[in-house]
């Protein structure tokens, strides 16, 4: 049994790193957004500021949620890739062992 299409764990690690990079970029964006919100609050005294603050707070919460999801996805990608790799290796090992047993049985008959 020859397995030619095995999971590429390195590619999975690379994809997970991209998720982490995007997460970091979103965190930086969120930080900037909070800073802008503070500047608006201190520099602008109008009735509308309450609504602007609420909108920015909601956006910030969404960004935080996306950041968490990206971090989780990155970990899941690596975990699943490693699990699939272990399963593939177990199948290869089992097939090899079966082939060796079959060869030994044939040799014993001679």
How would you characterize the overall build of this protein?
Helix 1 runs antiparallel to helix 2 (49-109). The protein has a domain at 9-81: Helix Hairpins (Orthogonal Bundle), CATH 1.10.287. The two termini are 24 Å apart. It is rod-shaped, with a radius of gyration of 27 Å. The chain contains two helices and no strands. It has helices spanning 9-43, 49-109. The chain is an all-alpha fold and 110 residues long. The model has no long low-confidence stretch (mean pLDDT 93).
Low-confidence stretches: none
Oligomer: single chain
SS-based class = mainly alpha
How many β-strand runs?
0
Percent helix: over 70%
CATH topology of the domain at 9-81: Helix Hairpins
- The general outline is rod-shaped
Rounded mean pLDDT is 93
User: How much β-strand is present in the residues?
Assistant: under 5%
Number of helices: 2
Distance between the termini: 24 Å
Main sheet? Answer: none
